[in-house]
Amino acid sequence: MDFIKEGLLRVDPGLFLWTIITFMVLMLILWKMAWKPIVDALDARSERIRGDIESADRKRIEAEKLLAQHKEMMDRAKDEAAEIIAKSKIEAEKIRNEIIEKANNDSRELAERAKQEIKLAKEEALAEIKSEIVNISTEIASKIINKNLNPEDQKSLVQETLDKLRTVQ
């Protein structure tokens, strides 16, 4: 315990009193000169933080509103896209049906034209056959006239001409 009587831990009443008085004076000076600026700075900082928090809350609310508007716009855009797709499908179906109908009409017209061409070709062939028959008949008649044939020769000549006609048909 000797170290308490002589070292740093020794209590001297005069020094203790002056230390307390110095501390009190220092506290009074700090109170008058430094305390108010420190408190004002802390209050200003507190107000700034409060303002930042309020601003952040306003911005958060505004961001939530914008997000809600964005979601609403996206929903509307999706609805419009679905509507456009549905309209496009309907329009495509109409166009498809029109194309099919036009193709059917064209094929009917083509078939009709082909039938008419066949009919004309048939009529031309029949006219040609008739002409050939007239020529052959004339030829037979001239042969008959040129030859006075007996009935057997006439029959064979007519039969031969008929056979020619059958091969032509």
Task: Provide structural commentary.
- Helices cover 93% and strands 0% of the residues.
- With 169 residues, the protein is mainly alpha-helical.
- It has one domain (2-168).
- Helix 2 packs antiparallel against helix 3.
- The protein is rod-shaped, with a radius of gyration of 63 Å.
- The chain starts with a helix and ends with a helix.
- The mean pLDDT is 85.
Order of helical and strand elements: HHH
Q: Spans with pLDDT under 50 lasting ≥5 residues?
A: none
Decide which structural class fits the backbone: mainly alpha
How many structurally independent domains? Answer: 1
The biggest beta sheet reads: none
N-to-C terminal Cα separation, in Å?
Answer: 156 Å
Strand content: under 5%
Overall geometry comes to rod-shaped
- What's the pLDDT, averaged over the residues? 85
Number of helices: 3
How many β-strand runs?
Answer: 0
Computed CA radius of gyration, to the nearest angstrom? 63 Å
The helicity comes to over 70%
